[in-house]
């Protein structure tokens, strides 16, 4: 039986993280004929605007949260007015947004050739990529799977779990003990998907992959042992984060339409809220992030929120990738044949299966756009024309596209990370945005990708 004091300790640690938040002072109305000493202008990139726009060059408006904003005559956001105390009065208040949004490489990734949307060379025949919408299978995505051992996978060398079956999470309520296990696996390089405090199949698959690599056995019910491992590798599973002016300013989009023609008309497919952005930053389910921060206003700079402490992204050189269709998992191996990382994935469906056999990575595109062609892709709504859909984390292929040598197929991100491993795809390999980004930085053209049944 798990010691009650340990469970109580975890719950206490979760509750002890501060929820302090300071109210934002009323924003002053400024004609911008001179700098208001009580406010500063924050650009969409998160920097303090160091000049006052010339009169007539911008228009003064309000965003949907009531903040004063400056927009140019094309409707583009120039800056958001924020209280100066919220920026200069806090040690973490005046950071460059690159701390929060790592810059994407220009062009298409590893190639120097001139690139068009999605990293397709302009001087070569265009190969339209297979889109990968969120098509549900028979799995009920509104509930979390009960954990059970997965079948052995001889093709990948995976073996059934040798640890005790998990008894955590059976009530359907998120638990900090499970979060601790998810954080441990994430730090070890074995992604549980979106961290949510539930013991599902993604967690079980990650645990089995970790056991395969290390040769160790970890009982998911032994919270004491998990906490000891966390203590030796990064500390407590929860930490705090102070929302910055850049976080609050965005820019964010009001909503993401389903229709691709409406998507194509948008300037970007960015985040819709601070909570969505922070959930991806800390590899969390957005609903879980909100649930452990009751009453917190995520739009207020200076607010302190509870988040999970997943550590730094993994690095290395991947030589071989195995896409296991049955397990819905991607496994990355090094040049020495040793398993490096594993990620939950959505891989194909019975109607639109993923390819079989071995292909190669051709190129990598960060922050890719997507070209929808109804003659090559599937029919979406009533769209019968080619559409260029802008990039963004809520784009059809998320924040990364790893093109494969089989035309139209690739490994990519997703706008719905909490559905990874619980839905099917239209043939491609879909990962969470953060997992796809981590993998993309470890591969190069020529890396083999083997699809196994």
TrEMBL record:
<dbReference type="Pfam" id="PF03734">
    <property type="entry name" value="YkuD"/>
</dbReference>
<feature type="active site" description="Nucleophile">
    <location>
        <position position="428"/>
    </location>
</feature>
<dbReference type="GO" id="GO:0005576">
    <property type="term" value="C:extracellular region"/>
</dbReference>
<keyword id="KW-0732">Signal</keyword>
<feature type="signal peptide">
    <location>
        <begin position="1"/>
        <end position="20"/>
    </location>
</feature>
<feature type="compositionally biased region" description="Polar residues">
    <location>
        <begin position="156"/>
        <end position="170"/>
    </location>
</feature>
<feature type="compositionally biased region" description="Polar residues">
    <location>
        <begin position="124"/>
        <end position="144"/>
    </location>
</feature>
<dbReference type="GO" id="GO:0071972">
    <property type="term" value="F:peptidoglycan L,D-transpeptidase activity"/>
</dbReference>
<keyword id="KW-0449">Lipoprotein</keyword>
<feature type="region of interest" description="Disordered">
    <location>
        <begin position="89"/>
        <end position="173"/>
    </location>
</feature>
<dbReference type="InterPro" id="IPR005490">
    <property type="entry name" value="LD_TPept_cat_dom"/>
</dbReference>
<dbReference type="GO" id="GO:0016740">
    <property type="term" value="F:transferase activity"/>
</dbReference>
<comment type="similarity">
    <text>Belongs to the YkuD family.</text>
</comment>
<keyword id="KW-0573">Peptidoglycan synthesis</keyword>
<dbReference type="InterPro" id="IPR036366">
    <property type="entry name" value="PGBDSf"/>
</dbReference>
<feature type="active site" description="Proton donor/acceptor">
    <location>
        <position position="412"/>
    </location>
</feature>
<comment type="pathway">
    <text>Cell wall biogenesis; peptidoglycan biosynthesis.</text>
</comment>
<dbReference type="GO" id="GO:0071555">
    <property type="term" value="P:cell wall organization"/>
</dbReference>
<keyword id="KW-0808">Transferase</keyword>
<dbReference type="InterPro" id="IPR036365">
    <property type="entry name" value="PGBD-like_sf"/>
</dbReference>
<keyword id="KW-0133">Cell shape</keyword>
<protein>
    <submittedName>
        <fullName>Lipoprotein-anchoring transpeptidase ErfK/SrfK</fullName>
    </submittedName>
</protein>
<feature type="domain" description="L,D-TPase catalytic">
    <location>
        <begin position="319"/>
        <end position="452"/>
    </location>
</feature>
<dbReference type="InterPro" id="IPR050979">
    <property type="entry name" value="LD-transpeptidase"/>
</dbReference>
<keyword id="KW-0961">Cell wall biogenesis/degradation</keyword>
<dbReference type="GO" id="GO:0018104">
    <property type="term" value="P:peptidoglycan-protein cross-linking"/>
</dbReference>
<dbReference type="InterPro" id="IPR038063">
    <property type="entry name" value="Transpep_catalytic_dom"/>
</dbReference>
<dbReference type="GO" id="GO:0008360">
    <property type="term" value="P:regulation of cell shape"/>
</dbReference>
